[in-house]
Amino acid sequence: MSKHTIVVCDHIHEDGLNILKNTEDVNYVYAADIDKTSLLDVIKDADIVITRSSTDVDEKFLDAAKNLKAVIRAGVGYDNVDMEGCSKRGIIAMNVPTANTIAAVELTMTHMLSCMRKFPYAHNQLKNDRIWKREDWYGNELFGKKLGIIGFGNIGHRVGLRAKSFEMEVVTYDPYIPSTKATDLGIEYTTNFDDILACDIITIHTPKNKETIDMIGEEEIAKMKDGVILINCARGGLYNEDALYNNLKSGKIAMAGIDVFKKEPAIDNKLLDLPNITVTAHLGANTKESQKKIAVQAAQNAIDSARGVSYPNALNLPIDESKIPSFVKPYIELTQKIAFLAAQRDRSPIRSIAVCAQGDIKEYLDSLSTFAAVGALSVSAGSDVNYVNAKFLAEDKGITFETSEMKSTSGYSNKITLKLTTENGVSTISGTVFDDNVQRIVELNGFDFDIEPKGKMIIMRNNDIPGVIGTVGKLLGDRNINISDFRLARGKNKDALAIILVDNSINSKILEEISNIEAAISVSYVEI
Ligand SMILES: NC(=O)C1=CN([C@@H]2O[C@H](COP(=O)(O)OP(=O)(O)OC[C@H]3O[C@@H](n4cnc5c(N)ncnc54)[C@H](O)[C@@H]3O)[C@@H](O)[C@H]2O)C=CC1
Ligand SMILES: O=C(O)C(=O)COP(=O)(O)O
User: Fold this and answer.
1) Integer Cα distance of 271 and 476 in angstroms
2) pLDDT-flagged residues of the chain (< 70)
3) Which of 86, 284, 303, 465 could form a disulfide with 104 if both were Cys (CB 3.0 to 4.6 A apart)?
4) Cβ atoms of 65 and 46 closer than 8 Å
């Protein structure tokens, strides 16, 4: 039995590890405790890797993991994964998006309460310094304060609900949700970021990306109330760390509760030197409950993706398969096959791939075009091409894409036409799917056909003169090649196109012999 190598790069709960250990077709490698250089060696045979935020899945990592098919981020944020690098290599990246939500929500509330009561400092004074000075520790209450939440997703909205149970006023800023998601929960929704900056406490729960890095800097802090409290249990760098440091130092920001840092591990971060900050070492997801759920899901997802069964929570698929209706799926398959056929007929460099759709499938032109790319490129790239990287690879080769739609005039309710332009010429192939779900080529370079794109096919264009079928039949028969089907279409210019299905593969010598038949204009051989 061939085994899938799954490398676990970070610490995950033993329940997940046990699933991997006990799965027969998995070769499980535990690499959480090794240094980064040794890890590059360990992952060279990995089919799948499981990581947390501590492992950078960067260019170096991806270059080392030559066999890699999927990256499972055992958590939410995937800013440590080079998504474009994965896509270019056809590697599917997945996360486990909701299993640690509660843990992060509760840590956010912990930091908020800790900041209000300066809990770690009060704790240290009694426990470590053995000083009983109650007058040093007058805190503040959450009750009646206004909380501003930036990002109202899985974590943000639950922080809002918990804040309400503390009888806080809550306002959120998240331009990507409908306002009712907040207002239905009795939470104010704003599109004016200044409403957030005017709050007593501000917490952020967005992903880390170009738009959110440094979302809070000097300018934003200047607009805040004196004595504001800032919480960050999302990602380091969403609050500019220099601005945070300067304003904590000046007292403009009274306290900050910080779980995440721009550079981790953050043992040398200057924020740690300040007296008005509560810190944790990126522990947002670190509850036993969360880690158990994440590890089990990550292990299961790793096995499913290794087996090619499913890719749950895939982040870089150009197509959301769940949104493709079942009637479109055979057209997607058909498009891939006819592109594969066209690219085999003419193996010279591809210049452009145009897809034209008739009927309801026109809504799915992007997907059809992606699969046309997979079909066309797999002639030269083989299994290295898949629908994640096909368009990236095509772009690298300078191939252009065109999509168009046409009114249905052909009598078929749906029809797909692929036009493949290469350095040597153009192939145009149309196909449809009949009610019994059978895929058919209905036109090839202007010749009408009704043939399934399947099997070993000799495609011959010839002058339409007597004796061609007999000559080809004899030539193949003499070479012990059995013909299983012979389809002929006549053109308008005394020419004809034959698709000859054969039982055996045709080598270049036989193909040349057929090309040498006097009536032959062009001959090609394809296998689907
Ligand atoms: N400290 C830790 O250990 C943990 C950290 N996290 C981090 O918490 C963050 C939030 O996680 P989830 O709530 O699960 O994600 P989510 O995807 O459910 O929610 C993110 C929300 O941010 C919003 N958003 C995106 N760009 C925005 C912008 N420019 N302005 C305002 N809102 C914006 C989105 O619309 C979405 O509603 C992520 O960065 C994640 O990596 C998550 C779990 C544990
Ligand atoms: O899920 C997230 O986004 C987290 O930040 C948790 O990261 P971790 O798996 O604890 O390294």
Assistant:
1) 80
2) 408-410
3) 284
4) yes
Rounded distance from Cα 283 to ligand 2 centre (Å): 8
Fold of 328-527: 60s Ribosomal Protein L30; Chain: A; (3.30.1330)
ipTM of the prediction greater than 0.95, yes or no: yes
pLDDT for residue 202: 99
Distances (CA, A) of 478 to 468, 513, 516, 523, 526: 15, 12, 16, 19, 21
Nearest alpha carbon, ligand 2 atom 9? 52
- Give φ, ψ of 426 to 5 degrees: -130, 135
DSSP state of 482: P
- The catalytic site residues sit at 235, 264, 282
Reported as type and span, the H/E element at residue 194 is helix 193-197
How many A from CA of 173 to the centre of ligand 1?
A: 12
pTM of the model: 0.84
CB–CB of 153/104 below 8 Å?
A: no
Residue 437's pLDDT is 82
Instruction: Give the pLDDT confidence score for residue 178 in this predicted structure.
Output: 93
Nearest CA to ligand 2 atom 5: 77
CATH: 3.40.50.720, 3.40.50.970, 3.40.50.150, 1.10.10.60. Which one for 4-98+289-307?
Answer: 3.40.50.720
- CATH code for the part of the protein at 101-279: 3.40.50.720
**Distance between CA 138 and CA 245 in Å, rounded?**
23
The Å distance, Cα 215 to ligand 2 centre, comes to 20
